[in-house]
Amino acid sequence: xxxxxxxxxxxxxxxxxxxxxxxxxxxxxxxxxxxxxxxxxxxxxxxxxxxxxxxxxxxxxxxxxxxxxxxxxxxxxxxxxxxxxxxxxxxxxxxxxxxxxxxxxxxxxxxxxxxxxxxxx
Length: 121
Fold this sequence. Notes:
By secondary structure, this protein is an alpha/beta fold. It has one domain (4-120): 3-Layer(aba) Sandwich (Rossmann fold), CATH 3.40.50.2300. The chain contains 5 helices and 5 strands, in the order E-H-E-H-E-H-E-H-E-H. The longest helix has 13 residues, at 11-23. It is globular and about 30 Å long. The model has no long low-confidence stretch (mean pLDDT 96).
C-alpha cells in the first residue's frame, strides 16, 4: 500500500484529502505543522509528500529544504499545495526540489488526487 504524508494545518482541507486518499486505498499519515512534518517524514518514509507552505513553526520551504538535504529522504516526491501563487514562491518551491506546485484555489480535491496518482505510477 502506497503511503502519502499530508503536512497541512487547515483541518478541513486535511481531513477532506485524507478521506479521499484513504477511500482510494492509500495509507495517509498526517502532520499539522512543519516540525511534526519533518519528524513524520523521517519515521514514515512515505512514497509521496503533500506539503503546505504556510505552517505553524517551520514553514513548508524549510521542511522541503531539510528533507532534500538527507540522502535517505531526498528521493521522495514532494507536491506543494499552497495558497501562495506568486511566481517567486513557485520558483522557490521547485528550485528546492518539489516535484510539482499546486495552488489550492486552482484545484479540486479530486484533481489533486489525480495528480498524486500520476506521480506515484
